[in-house]
Design brief:
This protein is an alpha/beta fold. The protein has helices spanning about 20-25, 30, 65-75, 90-105, 115-120, 180-195, 220-230, 270-280, 285-290, 335-350, and strands at about 5-15, 35-40, 80, 105-110, 110, 120-125, 130-135, 150-155, 160-165, 175-180, 200-205, 235-240, 245-250, 250-255, 260-265, 295-305, 310-320, 325-330, 355-360, 360-365.
Length: about 375
Amino acid sequence: MTGKSLTMLAVGDVILEKAEGGKYLSKVAPTFRKGDVVVGQGEVLFTDRGVKTFVENFPAPAGPSVNMQALADAGFNVITLAGNHAYDQGAPAIEDTIAGFKKLGIAYTGAGMNIDEARAPAIIERGGIRFGFLNYNCVGPMGEWAHKFKPGCAYIQIISHYEMNTANPGGSPDVYTFAVPRTLKAMIDDVQKLRPRCDVLTVAFHKGILGMPETLAMYDQQVSYAAIDAGADLILGHHAHMLKGIEIYKGKVIYHGLGQFVSIGQGLTDEQRKEMRSLAAPNLSTYVLRLDPARNMTMIAKCVVENGKITRASYLPCVINEEQQPVILKNDEKGREVFDFMDRITKAAGLNVRYEWDGDEIVIHQV
């Protein structure tokens, strides 16, 4: 152990499907380079030889391999890979992403050439403190999942149950979501095995309902609480492409949704857009309207680690500018818009934290 104070920074979905990825990270890179540990969610993988797969999804193109260097140059040293696009470009994308990260010294977890590799943790050491990471996908098609002889991502399977709460056929039901016990236990086992190997243990989940920033599904808290009960110190959530509330459980912070951090995609074809609208109807208008207020807001989670323990949790409010670059805000009008939004959705979700400015960062306190 050491008395040195260390800083861990974490962000949500990173999509770099176009070249020149470095310019989209240029505004935040100076802050990242000051962090001891910098974590991001690799929403798409990287390869120059991807193959078309047949997962039940809107397959995302892979990012060009050169963008892995852009991540390293920006200051990332841990990338989580479990998500609903992990196998979109097949085995070559997983193989090339892993090889590229190894070459660059970027630790990774959540995807692999088989399920054992996908569930393997990432462990890095800074100042005598060991940081361990695990990552699981809770959303998207089963075709993304890794198995004994198939590449893909680590996962927790979620079951949805719809129960009518009125005598109105076709009315809005109550929705109950649960983790399949076998897959939840696999995650718990992984956390318990990793616990003695590191000082700070983080579990990242690709989870959450799209388009509803104030709403958590039942499983959001189920999987987060289970990870903490098993020994996790911190939970990071992503996938919803918008900010979600934060809570504290047994003294451990849960960032339910870090938001979309950078999204430079190649775009959907007209045929894909038509299909998406067809699948989303009749709820598409509601989805778009509810997504709109948060579309450009994001954050950088910040944890201070002292003597191997997280002693302070906060976030840096950010906005995505017109050039699609995340920009860190200050305690000014724009920064307070993010503060107010987070305050509102956290209260609406019934979560047990309050936020307080400390300079230009926002500290998380339990209430």
